[in-house]
Amino acid sequence: MVQKVYDVKGMTCAHCVQAVSSELNGLPGVKEVQVDLASGKVTVTSEQALNRAAVAAAVDEAGYDLVGGEAQ
């Protein structure tokens, strides 16, 4: 398993968390998504490393922005 932490900009409420989680959980190989609303950090656990562009596209589809590189 691979765990990566991403910074997501624009999340302000529980609906935001649900939208981002739902989109990221739809990516192939994703096993778990944990969102820390206060910090904007999103931890994704997957079977193998995810393509950053795919993660960015999923976050964008939810209506938010992936900022910078991976936080960890």
TrEMBL record:
InterPro entries found in the cross-reference section: Heavy-metal-associated_CS, HMA_dom, HMA_dom_sf
SUPFAM superfamilies: HMA, heavy metal-associated domain
UniProt keyword terms in alphabetical order: Metal-binding
Pfam families noted in UniProt: HMA
Protein name in the entry: Cation transporter
Organism of provenance: Streptomyces coeruleorubidus
HMA domain: residues covered: 2-67
